[in-house]
């Protein structure tokens, strides 16, 4: 009886609220583990079915990566540790694992050049994640907590999904090796550029249950049903959807570019330009990434020397 009472006291004394922080981190670590499983299968050298299983392992990573943030928001356990851990896991599962997979599947004939092309994908993904973390932290420091409508550059999960679905589609049609490795190299290079580019893609984090949203969902569902009725493979449908998402981002960027050119022509002609949320200039993006921090320190020191007494708040660097 004494042991039961002791166990009951310990049970009531435990603050289970503290254990909630483990849940989102478990999802994130499962994401990283999925990436490791994928790399081990790709590196086995057996090809064929193992490459298919490696692609499926990354798909499990998509699942865990989708729900770790939602679990963190649901349990109100969002931390800086979880955000950095998520970026590291994404680099493994959606950077290194797809790069090794695509090298073994469609770039091996290029030899060292194929390794270089696959390595560019990893480096671009690392740069994309680092830039996202820097910009998000600076936005929070300026009091901007709501997610933006657009994200700068193609996200690394979206880029990895193109690679994964290419492998899965080839397996679905009974073709373990791609017919044109030159085309695969071009796709990998294009994805690498889109990740580090300043092209804005929709984040879909501002979606609200409106009539327009409901109509788009119905349209996508109808297209899905039509393609399924024509016996189109599910993986090919996913590949078509992600390709449409990338095409949407490129189309909108062209529209934004034409509007900015029209605005500049209006300014040069002296007319009042139309209101437009212009994309940040290159100098502003570099400043957000901290490229001019040392110069800002030097300027602030010079301003401090010119003032008699303590510097004002305007001379301090945030």
Topology, element by element:
Blueprint: H1 2-13, H2 22-42, H3 49-75, H4 80-107, H5 112-141, E1 150-152, H6 156-172, H7 181-196, E2 200-202, H8 211-229, H9 234-269, H10 282-288, H11 293-306
Antiparallel strand pairs: 1-2
Q: How is this structure best described in words?
A:
Helix 3 packs antiparallel against helix 4, helix 3 packs antiparallel against helix 6 and helix 4 packs antiparallel against helix 5. The chain folds into three domains: about 200 residues, CDP-alcohol phosphotransferase transmembrane (TM) domain (Four Helix Bundle (Hemerythrin (Met), subunit A), Up-down Bundle); about 70 residues, no CATH class; about 40 residues, no CATH class. The C terminus is likely disordered. The protein is built from eleven helices and two strands. About 70% of the residues lie in helices and about 0% in strands. The protein has a two-stranded antiparallel sheet with strand order 1-2. With about 325 residues, the chain is mostly helical. It is globular.
Which features does this protein show?
single chain, 318 residues, mainly alpha, Four Helix Bundle (Hemerythrin (Met), subunit A), 3 domains, two-stranded antiparallel sheet, 11 helices, 71% helix, globular, disordered C terminus
Count up the domains.
3
Might you state the CATH topology name of the largest domain?
A: Four Helix Bundle (Hemerythrin (Met), subunit A)
Query: How many alpha or pi helices?
Result: 11
Q: What is the CATH C-level name of the largest domain?
A: Mainly Alpha
The computed structural class is: mainly alpha
Shape descriptor reads globular
Say how many strands there are: 2
Instruction: Tell me what the CATH architecture of the largest domain is.
Output: Up-down Bundle
How helix-rich are the residues, as a percent range?
A: over 70%
Name the average pLDDT.
75
Please compute the radius of gyration using only Cα atoms: 24 Å
Question: Topology as H/E string?
Answer: HHHHHEHHEHHHH
- In spatial order, strands of the major sheet run 1-2
CATH superfamily of the largest domain: CDP-alcohol phosphotransferase transmembrane (TM) domain
* Percent of residues in β-strands: under 5%
Describe the sheet with the most strands.
Answer: 2 strands, antiparallel
Distance between the termini: 61 Å
Low-confidence stretches: 296-318
